Amino acid sequence: MSEQTLSSSSSSQLFINNLQQSLDLCSKGVENGDFRKSEASISELVESISSISDAAISAVDDEETLINSITVLSYIHSYLSNPTLDQAVIDALSFELPKAIAKFSGVSQRCSELVENIIDLFITKCSPRDMISVFSEALDSYGKTTDAPGYVATFLLGVSKVFLNIQRRHFEQMKVAIPIVLNALKAASFDLDDSDVGLEILFKGAIAIADSIQATCKKLEGEASAKLRNLLGLYVLQVIAVVSISMGNRESICLSFVVHLSSFVPYCGLLYANLIIGHGIDLLVSHVCDGDTDDYIDCFSYVKHGAVLSVIWGHISDEVSQAARQDVHILKDELRSTQSSRWSAVGLIKCVFNLGNLPWNLKKHALEFLLGITENIDQQETSEDTKCSLHTLSVTSTLQAITLLIMTAPNAELRKMAFAALKSVLADIPASSRLDMMQALIRSSYSASMTAILIDCVRENLRNDYPKLKEAKICTSNSFWNAGILDLVELVLRPPSGGPPSLPEQSDAVLSALNLYRYVLITESTGKTNYTGVISRSNLQKAYNEWLLPLRNVVTAMISETKKDGEQLGFDIMCGLNPVEFVLYRCIELVEDSIKQSI
């Protein structure tokens, strides 16, 4: 026998002797009613076990620590399996021992199996109510006292098994545990890399809990079953969101989990048509969380994200929609034909776009879905303005989220798709509301380039509307040709903060605003119209004195100063200012001519 083997054997025996001593002391303390003594011995036992698990986790390739871990776990399993062991001793050990041995789960496959077997013994021999409390406390400790690999997955699987042993007050007991389960699942999954095998084990445990809740529902009847189904529905939607965030980059693997989770959708009475517009979700939360604190409700913070993502996954894969017993093609047709529902869907989908840690490939699929329900929609009657006003805030928020995608997307394809979605959604909004929304987007924009893009979209709308307006095919109330255009120009050329715009930072936005003003002035002058009021003498003088001349002073001073510097930075600034200067002077000439003609 080698020296290393002898050393390992000696070390393992020492640990076993210490364990045996602590367990004997605990047993005697319980038998004698000396709970202080038993608690002290359990603390020593946990401390000893933790020293072994810590060593094993920090040196997973070390053979000696692995042997020690397996030896210790095997001994504990053998000890607890003894049919003559007093139940009071098992109960005393159940409050602390599971947390200590669960840390071994990530050491090796054999350790994980032994840990599961030990947890199963506690589940079999102890009260379900006590085990739910113990496992919940263990899950709640993740990130506080431990972040050992496999730790959370062990207790998720344990919770799934103990749920099946609950004999009464099923909803109440599960309701207490679910928030802790979801918070631990979220924390643990976000800590792992999407390629980590532990992530898959984690979500298998989460799905096992859903299976157990469903199995329990089927044993109950009436209100008890309905309440538990509501809880299951919220749980599933939350887990779909967490799975998507954590594993969305690996679509093929993530898909298998989403398919399983989607199979609960019809059982919970959830429909894609309701999920995509958020219908009934708040009611579901209120039914489950009635009278609960905000802290409790926060555990379902991703439920609406999960509702939208469940539909997006159905759009991605027929396998998912079939598991949910839903038809995405029919859903899209219904949304395309029902404007109010479509706007509700547009308003809710922003939660996916705003989810910063959601993989880009899923945001791309969400954009595809959005384009699928909004592209090439025939404009409906202007009576839809009233309905649109009900959705203004939510749709505007979605448009803001899309503009952020345009600015932050990692590649040109995604930026192009996001821009197409922006134009598609805007085109679906009645003109009177559309201009208000675009003004809101421009006011909230922190990017000069994005502001420029939005102003160019306004100009495109003007160009499309003008011939129809002249031919009386549309009325001014359904057109961009109104005084709001001048307000938009003023927003950029004379910002609410006061003074002319900051250059060169705002060069892109200023250039687009000047081009918009020039286009409107030329079009109204040559067409002998004044829909916007642009050629009214008071508006001409205001533009000349308050917008253009102050801007000219800034541009002239900056160009003069930049020419003196003569460095590369100065050259770059000049490249941005030259087109601004050109269009600015053209606008000044046009305004001066228009003022002369108005005399």
From TrEMBL:
Lineage of the organism: Eukaryota, Viridiplantae, Streptophyta, Embryophyta, Tracheophyta
Q: State the source organism's domain of life.
A: Eukaryota
What are its GO cellular component terms? cytoplasm
Q: Which GO terms describe its molecular function?
A: ubiquitin-protein transferase inhibitor activity
- What is the protein name stated in its UniProt record? Aberrant root formation protein 4
